[in-house]
Structures are given as C-alpha cells and as structure tokens.
Design brief:
elongated; 2 strands; two-stranded antiparallel ribbon; 67% helix; mainly alpha
C-alpha cells in the first residue's frame, strides 16, 4: 500500500504543479492582453492628439503643412471614391441625416427631408475650372 500512497502523492504533486503552471500561463496571457489593450489605448490617444493638431493647424512648419496637404488630398480622394460608390449603387446621401436614398427619391425615407436635385456630383464629370483649363491649352 505504501507504493500506492507514494504514487498518489506524486500524482497529487504533479497535478498541483500543472495547475500552478496553467495559472501562471493564464496570468501571463491576461497580462499580455492587458498590455496590448493599453498600447491600443495609447495609440488611439496619439491619433486623437494628431487629429486635434491637424484641425487646429497652429504654428505650422513646412513639414507639418506638407502632412496636412497629404491628409487633405487623401480625404478628398476618399470623398470622390464614396461618390463613385453611391453612383454605382444608384443612390445618393440625404443632406440632412446622411442616409442613402435612391437617385430618384425626392424625399428621404429615413428623416422625410426633401432631397434637393444636385446638378453634378459625379466624380467622372469635369468641373468648370477643368473645362476652362482644357480650352486654354488647346
């Protein structure tokens, strides 16, 4: 019986060791997740700070102005792409609530606001200034 008691004690000790290792690994994993969450929080704070600086645009250096111009250009390109998507879908945005409505709709189905007819929001069509530039070059 001493053999079984010794074997039982060994199994019990191994079980405790395994249990402790699992707790340690679990604790480490939890800490790593918490660290990643804090790093994400810090990155979001950096983004908000950068956005606030961008919106204020005080004491700009040439380098900062170049960054602002690249951001403005990217925002403009995003807007054009969004218009292309709306055009391909055959929809437009309600100026009041921003909901997508059919190109043929006169009123927004979400807020009921009258949708004004836009002469040309198409990113494919040239603006008057582009047409004038082309006429000057020819």
């Amino acid at each position: 019986m001493a053999l079984f008691e010794k074997l039982g004690d060994t199994i019990l000790n191994v079980g405790k060791d395994v249990s402790q290792k699992v707790k340690d690994v679990s604790g480490i994993t939890k800490l790593r997740i918490d660290i990643r969450a804090k790093e994400d929080f810090i990155n979001k704070q950096y983004m908000e700070l950068g956005k606030a600086c961008y919106e204020r645009r005080q004491s700009e250096t040439e380098e900062e102005e170049a960054i602002f111009e690249r951001i403005d250009e990217a925002v403009s390109e995003i807007h054009k792409m969004e218009l292309q998507i709306l055009e391909l879908k055959g929809t437009k945005k309600c100026p009041s609530c921003g909901a997508e409505v059919s190109d043929l709709a006169e009123y927004c189905s979400v807020c009921g606001e009258k949708i004004s007819v836009v002469v040309s929001d198409s990113p494919y069509e040239e603006t008057p200034s582009e047409e004038a530039e082309e006429q000057e070059t020819t």
